[in-house]
Amino acid sequence: PVRKKDVLHLMARHLPKRTVQVLRDLGGAGDSLELPVYAVGGFVRDLLLGNENSDIDVSVEGDGIFFAETFAARYGCRVKSHIKFGTAVIVFPDGFKIDVASTRLEYYETPGALPTVERSSLKMDLYRRDFTINTLAIRLNSADFALLIDYFGAYRDLQEKSIRVLHNLSFVEDPTRVFRAIRFEHRLNFAIARHTENLIKNAIKMGFLEKVGGRRLLNELMQIFKHSDPIGAIQRMAGFGLLRFIHPDLVLTTENLRVIEEAKKVITWFDLLYLGQRVENWVVYLLALTSSLSDDRFWKMCTRLAVSEHYREKLIELRIHGEQVLEVMERRVAQHEPVVPSEIYFWLAGLTPELLLYIMAKSGNDDVKKFVSLYVTKLQHVASSITGNDLKALGLPVGPRYRKILDRVLAARLNGEVLTREEELQLATREIDQV
Ligand code: CTP
Predict the structure, then answer these.
(1) Closest-lying ligand 1 atom to the alpha carbon of residue 176
(2) Domain C-terminal end among 105, 129, 160
(3) Whose CA is nearest to atom 11 of ligand 1?
(4) 38: β partners
(5) Which tens digits make up the pLDDT trace of 294-343?
(6) Counting atoms of ligand 1 from 1, which one is nearest the CA of 135?
(7) Closest CA to 383 of 429, 338, 433, 342
(8) Which residues does a 6 A CB cutoff place in the pocket of ligand 1?
(9) Whose CA is nearest to atom 8 of ligand 1?
(10) Domain span at 395
């Protein structure tokens, strides 16, 4: 039902001109080597859906590395190849990248031995994939440019908005596909097909998910949490009983669901502020989802997810610090004691944007939220104009009083007690004289 003409039309409509030209050039390189070349996978899926996707994956029926090198020589690109896998990345001078895979692999098992050659067709290559919607290919050779190849009913599933595996062992072969199914379901607004859902349940029941390594699990979770609204996907994971693979005690309660929902609001708020500060949304969601875990369990979870040692220590330290600050703030609000800006500043100054957003989401208290929001929008950018050199010039002997006096001056600046550099210097002088 989808003709070349339709594919060409979709290309013209959804792809930058340059991308279309690159696709034609890839086909041209294939022509001259007499190798069939295809765009495959997510790129084709998204083209048919009219979604943006600039990750071009190319499959060559033949030696993909040789193909990539030929193409690169012709168009002034670099190539990074992985001989063992028969894959290569073509890197354009401006950094644009194309992934190339071979459906024919040729490698040397031992030095000096004859190469082991594995031949397989495009169809075999596509059959190994996770879901039908990822098995589409577009032929790029000039004679058949833009010909859509659909061996496994992918187009029908795209129209039916259905996530469907190609065969019953798909989740056994690769249990991380369970998370991919949920991610695609939510990102594309599709539904996991009935039989595929049963296969997921079965794979979970049979314990295949336990085999997923920490790194890969974290990677899948990151991809899910990077979406602007991962709540549906999180509920779906909970529905399948997948949260226990993150930590055996992790369940979705009304409380952590509330924190996750708040996290979404504060992330949206933060994005709209355009502070030029990057925040890793996935960290905020991971913290929100696991907000009910004790420090000890959170640590175990980080270990399970193979979070790198350096990052793990930092994250745990910040989480503990953030929770303590949250407690202090909530206590102060409960006591109805006035809070001055400098206090807010020194409470929050050591926290990353992710932790700030997390404690904002976690606190159900509007005043606490206002504190954090004041810090994020204003206080964190406040600086006093005097430095250690100024104190030196005022005759203060080097020592721990430097930090104290600089903090005192900064506090005065934050609270509006001093407004100019002159006033700051006067205050510093008074402080120095006060022994
Ligand atoms: N794939 C798979 N099993 C996995 C991971 C990937 O079968 N566990 C296949 C998918 O069919 C996919 C292809 O490998 O089309 C490339 O993977 P990836 O780049 O992760 O997926 P995309 O479909 O391109 O998804 P995205 O749009 O999120 O990049």
Answers:
(1) 8
(2) 160
(3) 129
(4) 59, 139
(5) 999 999 999 999 999 899 999 999 999 999 999 999 999 999 989 999 99
(6) 11
(7) 342
(8) 41-42, 53, 55, 129-130, 134, 174, 176-177, 180
(9) 177
(10) 388-433
